[in-house]
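fyi for ur records
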Amino acid sequence: GGSAAHGVCPPARALRDAALAEGFEMPVGLTSDESAVLFGYNPASGVTVTNNHTYPVKILMWTEGEGVGMGIYCQIVRYIPEK
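which gave:
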């Protein structure tokens, strides 16, 4: 049990928060606490976000700055067709 060494993962927290804000369920491999990544999951390939909407989405992640001042961001873009 517990978290792996990579568990306190700012990119995973950004992804988790964006997914939950969009109304998705908790991504597989992530947790709601500060650790973000569950033990036994590879944060680079083991995390899965399930789109429960009827339209496609695109997940964008990027960084700004460098070093200890770097910001990590995640945005989910909706592709809703016009009627």
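The helical segments are 10-21. thats all i got for now
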